[in-house]
Design a protein that fits this description.
heterodimer; A: six-stranded mixed beta sheet; globular; B: 120 residues; mainly beta; seven-stranded mixed beta sheet; four-stranded antiparallel beta sheet
């Protein structure tokens, strides 16, 4: 089973700032099958990024993903008020399709 | 528009059973892999199980193997999760999700979830 470790656990930033979230895998992720999700309180997760760097339908271009192998990054170029949420990475290259523990992005 | 609506959650005693349903609309269910993902109260996401498009293969997390069974009725546009021998640690919101158009293993669209509480 691939273990995903996200850092930091909590990130405190202000609107307009740049956010960088990390996801590290315990072994190489097949074909860069790494996704990022956003979840707001009381809502279902929403897919942001798949294939490590492809934006899902309708996602703003301030969200970008990068990385390969075992190290992946989600970057939000300029934070909007609606971006403060919890973010999860998931690998879907090998079953079980594990998630990271999440990074909470909070307003500073 | 893709819509997924889960139902069947509720309160059940430890050792009991429950069947969750996920009604799909806005797409042809038979063309896509489907997943269940759960989230315990205040915790992170936990992938549970997936089924391929024609229902011939499934894959599950070790924590539910032998207890949970995933099935689908493409004619009724409905996905099911039969949960047996339930434990307190199965308490969670259960989400169904549709796989991606190219990569079925990617949970692309998600429902709003149904809450399962296992307690005496």
């Amino acid at each position: 089973e691939i273990v995903l470790t996200q850092s930091p656990g909590t990130l405190s930033l202000s609107p307009g700032e740049r956010a960088t979230l990390s996801c590290r895998a315990s072994q190489s992720v097949t074909s860069s099958y790494l996704a990022w999700y956003q979840q707001k309180p009381g809502q279902a997760p929403r897919l942001l990024i798949y294939g490590a760097s492809s934006r899902a339908t309708g996602m703003p271009d301030r969200f970008s993903g990068s990385g390969s192998g075992t190290d992946f990054t989600l970057t939000i170029s300029r934070l909007e008020p609606e971006d403060f949420a919890v973010y999860y990475c998931q690998q879907y290259g090998s079953s079980p399709y594990t998630f990271g523990q999440g990074t909470k992005l909070e307003i500073k | 528009e893709v819509q997924l609506v889960e139902s069947g959650g509720g309160l059940v005693r430890p050792g009991g059973s429950l069947r969750l349903s996920c009604a799909a609309s806005g797409f042809t269910l038979s063309s896509f892999w489907m997943h269940w993902v759960r989230q315990a109260p205040g915790k992170g996401l936990d992938w549970v199980s997936r089924i391929n498009s024609d229902g011939t293969t499934t894959s599950s997390a070790d924590s539910v193997k032998g207890r949970f069974t995933l099935s689908r009725d493409n004619a009724k546009n409905t996905l099911y999760l039969q949960m047996n021998s339930l434990r307190a640690e199965d308490t969670a919101v259960y989400y169904c999700a549709r796989g991606g158009a190219i990569t079925g293993a990617l949970p692309y669209y998600w429902g709003q979830g149904t809450l399962v509480t296992v307690s005496s």
